């Protein structure tokens, strides 16, 4: 990891993204709430393809974090960001010291009710 100029440059860019675009998040790891910075990507609508060719229905939020900040985390871990509760569905592999968590809204085992659009 970071053994060549490209990897070092990417790690520097990823760190800058977390510092400037990240926000405080709380993740439950081994029964403890851990504070860290993460960048939340939360799509709000389906993606429609040109000419009605199809529809992509993936509005799962994703959280970009430092891999070292989430050591020991397991799927279904609770994540709190800005008053909203999520839980970890999947953890992408480490990519040069950073990774994405795919999240679900609400708590595991509880149906999430989408707020009405107003």
TrEMBL record:
The Gene Ontology biological process terms listed for this entry are:
virion assembly
Q: Origin, by domain of life? A: Bacteria
**Which InterPro entries does the entry mention?**
Phage_Head-Tail_Connect_sf, Phage_tail_attach_FII
Cited Pfam families: Phage_attach
This chain belongs to the protein called: Phage Head-Tail Attachment
Q: Which organism is it from?
A: Providencia alcalifaciens DSM 30120
